[in-house]
Amino acid sequence: MTEIFIRKQKIRPGKTDRLREWIQEMNEEAEADTQGVRNIWADESLHTISLFIEHAQDGDYFVWYLEAGSMEQLIEARRASTHPLHDIEDAMMEEVLEDPEEVGDFEPLLHGVNSERPAAFDIHQYSEDPQ
User: For a tag site, which of 22, 56, 57, 69 has the least CB within 10 Å?
Assistant: First the structure.
C-alpha cells in the first residue's frame, strides 16, 4: 500500500515568481539526468510528486503532494542523497519559503490508485504563471 504526504508552506512575500524559476531549474536538471531521477525515485520509493502554488488572501503557499511506497524510506534516502537536484531543492526552500521546516497537519481521508496506471517516468510542467 502506498503512503501519501502533503506539505503546505507559506511563500515569502514577493518570492512566488522566484519559486517558479527554481521549479524550472529543477525541471531542467531532471530532464538533463532522467536516469538519475529514476534512481532517486527508486531509492525513495517515490511514485508521484505534484507541486502547486495556492493563491490565498493572506499570501501564496507552496503545496507538495507525494506518494511513495514508504515515507520512512523516502525521508532516509533524501537525507542520504548527494544528487544536485536535491541541492537545488534545498536552496529553493531556504530562499522562498517563510519556514522550510513547516509541514502542516493533514488528515488523509481517502487515497485511490488505479492499478493499471502507466509505469513510465514522466514529468509535466505547466505554464510559468497561470494567472
Answer: 57
Note the pLDDT tens digit of each residue in 75-100. Answer: 999 999 998 889 999 999 999 999 88
For residue range 12-71, list pLDDT tens digits in order.
999 999 999 999 999 998 889 989 999 999 999 999 999 999 999 999 999 999 999 999
Sheet order of strands, 59-68 included: 3-10, 59-68, 46-56
Look up residue 57 and give its three cell numbers: 488572501
Q: Which residue ranges make up each domain of the chain?
A: 3-96
Closest by alpha carbon to 65, among 19, 127, 119, 3?
3
- Residues 125 and 114: their CA atoms lie apart, in Å, by 22
Which residues have a Cβ under 8 Å from the Cβ of 93 and sit 6 or more positions away?
A: 9, 100
What single-letter DSSP state applies at residue 106? Answer: -
Domain 3-96 bears CATH identifier 3.30.70: yes
